[in-house]
RNA sequence: GUUCUAGUAGCUCAGUUGGAUAGAGUGUUGGCCUCCGAAGCCAAAGGUCAUGAGUUCGAAUCUCAUCUAGAACACCA
């Protein structure tokens, strides 16, 4: 319909204006609205109402438009309003029904490496790791659904200063290789990290251990591999629970073998400079409002850093996968690091044509608005959080079923993920365990509940192979059908803006309308066979869409809710 | 200090990039289970979109200033 309108405007005013008909925010008046008459009024120095009326008049002559819309009118200041005809609405739904992926036009395929998760070795996963995991997984599923070839890499932080710190801590306790345990690691890590902030001498020792490890010191290597083994197992367990999976389990340490070749490249391209004993790559631009410090490639003690391994990782990815895009999602506080990194890549011939994106996540705060801590003052571990939510759920006297452990885990996942993903990712949000345990209102369980009670109707009735007829039976019926038509726009917008929250919010609105339909329209005892069939087809489509969208959010469906 | 980001109902948040009467959840008040699942549905109340100017037919959305909060700012990740 954009095309038809564009032609009409061109014919009327000889102006090739880009026409964009939007979903109406006044559903009492129409389904779609065009507000371009105001802009035309300005350029043409005419009354927008006159322009709107002229457009409507021309629309009435167009056989396609009059067939598709039961009402086209111009109102008050100059809005052009369109109301879908029942038959066209159902045509569109039938197209969704009969084509793969609801007949949505997909963007062209690209190979994308998605760098998410970002867990640090030797440190148990805590709430801070929740968003990168859940959000990253959802982005992966969204991009995959939208026809992209996505390679997910956990990219463990496994070779930085923290490893030196932990090794130092283990040495101080005379801990032998075989006595290293997860508990020990999770105790030593925060201890050492605090100690290094106070004591410059110890910090230096840790830095040197890190350096020697990177240089291949066999003793430290042994410790490193043991720590990595133990830690990875634990990290995997948590990611498994969350249904977060990766195609690649690489980390900083895997990038080290590419550093020599990378260094040679950077040297021949004359990118490296000496500065205060370190080797750096300047990335400041004259247009910068604030000075961007140079990218540090190698420290003055010759050790390498996060940035170096990131760059070496890009080198490796380019050689192995040749991706069009690399997307990173981490805490938003790493913003500067990534602008530096991306600027380096723009200067470096090998990586110049890769398209980089950084999706910075807001921090999770406590109810006091400060970074989240437990009552004891610790950052809570994810595992503890899962059991707490599970307990709160089981202690709810209103729940009506016995749950299998599998169903319980699915429900806990739905609670956490829906609570997280409905937020705008770049904004910080307040983490409140009570809110995160909610099962009423705008929550994961609400969606699951809606799905299951609808699905129950379909169990009683055989699915017709037929298409929808031309009839719409009442307002609840129509509201639901109109909502289903939004799907394409929703998926596209979520894809382009990398926002699973768009999907979560749509999913909720869809379920609200589904529940209204449910309460007002009873199917099982219906005598009108055609009506019954239509509604079963409609509910089939609706539940299928709910299921697909839940899957994009990483939420499974339990047998009961 | 500089630069970003934010400030929307008591609380927690949406608001598809400038459109018509600013929306949800939660909390409060009232109504709905002889009918497919009441973790549901329906209704009421709740707002100077931080403040003040400006841009224009039209601003929560764009500009500027002020206030408040948070983040980043060279060898951490």
What percent of residues are in strands? 5-15%
Helix/strand-derived category reads alpha/beta
Please state the CA-atom Rg, rounded to the nearest Å: 29 Å
- Contiguous runs where pLDDT drops below 50 for at least 5 residues: none
Query: How many strand segments?
Result: 13
Number of domains: 3
Measured as a percent range, the helix fraction is 40-55%
Major sheet size, sense and barrel closure: 4 strands, antiparallel
Count of DSSP H/I helices: 21
Strand order of the largest sheet: 1-2-4-3
Q: Which architecture of the largest domain per CATH?
A: 3-Layer(aba) Sandwich
Output the CATH class name of the largest domain. Alpha Beta
Q: Outline, from the CA principal axes?
A: globular
- If you consult CATH, what is the topology of the largest domain? Rossmann fold
Mean pLDDT: 92
CATH homologous group name of the largest domain: HUPs
């Amino acid at each position: 319909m954009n095309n038809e309108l564009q032609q009409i405007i061109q014919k009327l005013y000889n102006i090739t204006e880009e026409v964009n008909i939007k979903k109406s925010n006044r559903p009492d008046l129409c389904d779609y609205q065009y507000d371009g008459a105001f802009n035309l009024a300005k350029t043409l120095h005419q009354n927008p109402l006159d322009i709107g009326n002229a457009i409507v008049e021309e629309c009435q002559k167009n056989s396609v438009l009059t067939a598709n819309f039961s009402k086209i009118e111009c109102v008050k200041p100059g809005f052009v309003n369109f109301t879908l005809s029942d038959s066209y609405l159902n045509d569109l739904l039938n197209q969704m029904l009969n084509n793969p992926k609801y007949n949505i036009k997909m963007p062209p395929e690209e190979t994308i490496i998605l760098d998410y998760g970002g867990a640090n070795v030797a440190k148990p996963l805590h709430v801070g790791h929740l968003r990168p995991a859940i959000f990253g997984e959802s982005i992966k599923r969204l991009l995959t659904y939208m026809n992209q070839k996505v390679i997910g890499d956990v990219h463990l932080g496994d070779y930085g200063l923290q490893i030196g710190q932990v090794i130092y801590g283990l040495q101080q306790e005379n801990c032998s290789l075989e006595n290293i345990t997860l508990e020990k690691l999770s105790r030593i890590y925060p201890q050492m990290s605090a100690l290094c902030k106070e004591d410059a001498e110890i910090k230096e020792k840790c830095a040197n251990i890190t350096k020697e490890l990177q240089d291949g010191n066999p003793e430290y290597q042994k410790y490193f591999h043991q720590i990595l083994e133990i830690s990875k197992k634990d990290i995997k367990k948590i990611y498994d629970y969350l249904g977060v999976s990766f195609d690649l389990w690489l980390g900083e340490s895997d990038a080290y073998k590419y550093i020599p070749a990378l260094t040679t490249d950077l040297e021949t391209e004359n990118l490296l400079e000496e500065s205060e004993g370190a080797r750096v790559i300047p990335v400041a631009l004259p247009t910068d409002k604030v000075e961007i410090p140079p990218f540090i490639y190698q420290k003055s003690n010759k050790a390498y850093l996060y940035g170096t391994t990131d760059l070496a990782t890009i080198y490796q990815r380019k050689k192995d996968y040749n991706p069009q895009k690399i997307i990173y999602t981490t805490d938003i506080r790493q913003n500067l690091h990534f602008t530096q990194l991306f600027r380096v890549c723009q200067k470096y011939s090998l990586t110049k044509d890769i398209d980089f994106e950084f999706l910075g996540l807001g921090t999770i705060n406590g109810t006091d608005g400060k970074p989240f801590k437990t009552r004891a003052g610790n950052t809570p571990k994810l595992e503890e959080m899962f059991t707490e939510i599970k307990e709160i759920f089981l202690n709810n006297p209103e729940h009506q079923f016995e749950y299998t452990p599998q169903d319980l885990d699915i429900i806990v996942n739905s609670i956490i993920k829906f609570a997280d993903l409905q937020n705008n990712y770049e904004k910080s949000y307040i983490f409140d365990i009570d809110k995160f345990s909610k099962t009423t209102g705008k929550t994961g369980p609400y969606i699951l509940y809606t799905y299951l009670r609808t699905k129950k109707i379909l169990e009683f009735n055989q699915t017709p192979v037929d298409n929808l007829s031309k009839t719409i039976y009442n307002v609840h019926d129509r509201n639901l059908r109109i909502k289903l038509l939004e799907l394409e726009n929703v998926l596209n917008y979520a894809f382009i803006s990398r926002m699973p929250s768009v999907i979560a919010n749509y999913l909720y609105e869809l379920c609200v309308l589904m529940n209204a339909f449910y309460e007002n329209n009873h199917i099982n005892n219906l005598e009108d066979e055609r009506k019954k069939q239509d509604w079963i087809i409609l509910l089939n489509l609706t539940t299928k869409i709910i299921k697909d969208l839940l899957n994009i959010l990483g939420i499974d469906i339990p047998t009961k809710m």
